[in-house]
Design a protein that fits this description.
By secondary structure, this protein is of the alpha/beta class. It is built from ten helices and five strands. α8 crosses α9.
Length: 207
């Protein structure tokens, strides 16, 4: 019987201990081949284009905005995205999945579960976020999941576009943009565009 091709993986840059653990873990699985490792966040798109991996493993803490996951997925739909975060809430995981990630896991996830996620992701199967009970916590009161259209509006808001400019760019009415903006502010827990800009442009938390 013909040997199955190994799953190719590109791993983004993580903090040192996590990075070493991932290299050791993945290296022990003969069915997975690392084709890119410790890739800086800003070079992931290029690495995906050059290596065309089956799976890309992203560091949630390096994301400036969830929209980056959506953009990577749109540009490289055949590469399945697994996001690793430091104790992500179900809302954060749902947001990653809504924007194209195939899996969202805690960096503290057991080794076998991370390997299983890589194998499942390579086959296009989603790894759903754990329930609050499985997280050992009560239902979080964190941000709700943005819709794809709200994500479009958020991206333009972060670039300093006015409501009228956003309406023109998206082909919708100004009042529709205002409604989307209000929903975005509520879901992200901000009140002004200045707060939104700070949220988008600040240094990402170590997650």
């Amino acid at each position: 019987m013909e040997a199955r091709r190994p799953i190719t993986v590109v791993v983004s840059r993580f903090e040192d201990l996590v990075s070493r653990g991932l290299r050791t873990l993945i290296g022990e699985d003969s069915n997975i081949e690392i084709v890119g490792f410790d890739v800086p966040h800003g070079q992931l798109a290029r690495s995906f284009a050059v290596q065309d991996p089956d799976v890309g493993i992203l560091n949630f803490g390096s994301l400036r905005t969830p929209i980056e996951v959506r953009d990577l997925h749109a540009a490289h739909p055949d590469t399945r995205i697994v996001v690793l975060a430091n104790r992500p809430t179900p809302a954060e995981c749902n947001q990653m999945l809504a924007f194209g990630a195939t899996a969202c896991l805690s960096k503290e996830t057991q080794a076998r579960d991370i390997l299983n996620a890589i194998h499942l992701a390579s086959r296009g199967l989603h790894v759903l976020p754990k329930t609050p009970r499985e997280f050992g916590a009560i239902e979080p009161t964190g941000p709700e999941v943005l819709t794809p259209r709200e994500a479009d509006v958020l991206e333009l808001l972060q670039h300093g576009r006015s409501n009228a400019e956003i309406a023109l760019a998206l082909g919708v009415g100004v009042e529709t943009v205002r409604t989307h903006a209000r929903n975005i502010y509520r879901k992200l827990g901000v009140k002004t565009r200045r707060e939104l800009a700070t949220l988008a442009g600040g240094s990402p938390a170590a997650r």
